[in-house]
Every structure is written in C-alpha cells, then in structure tokens.
Amino acid sequence: QVHLVESGGGLVQPGGSLRLSCAASGNIFSISAMGWYRQAPGKQREYVATITSGDSANYADSAKGRFTISRDNAKNTVYLQMNSLKPEDTAVYYCKCFTNFGTEYWGQGTQVTVSS
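RE: above sequence
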C-alpha cells in the first residue's frame, strides 16, 4: 500500500505561482508513475499531469506551458510547479500514484484558490 500526502496549496493572485508537493510513503518501490489531478466545484475530477519513473512527463492542454511536474526520488516526492495561474485553475488538487501491481492510490487533496 502507498500513502500520499499533498501540501503547498493556498490562495494566490492571478498571474502568481504555487508549488505543490506530494510525499509518498509505504510500498514506494512499487510506484511506476505519479500524477496530479484537480476537481473544481461542481465539476468532474480532471487530469493535469503525470510523470513516469523514467521522468517522462505528460500534461493536459490546460497545463502545457504553465505547469511543470517533477519528482525527487531521494525524497519520494513529486512536485507540480504552477505559474501564470488563472482563476479557472481554482480547484482541489489531488496526487495519484500508479503501481506495478495495477493498483492506484490517491492523496487527500490540497486546495488551490486563484483570486484577487
């Protein structure tokens, strides 16, 4: 089993930046990829970005050019650097991991609010 804890959310003005962190613990050696998803009020959860164990990254169109996903294997942590934030980026951001056993785990989420 893998336990994920997100941090780094908060209130930021439009055009600002935030860096989210997701720390993994437990059976971390089974993790094949990690990613970020978000859910805005009244909307379905949506994909933001993923990164594989080989550091191959993919992004949703809404995140390309503004967000960067990265991972620090020594700290068992994945990051999401978010720049040029817009009000429509307001959501609860969730970390997710995929394991070699075909299982998936979610973190509890961290709130990001973009508002002036």
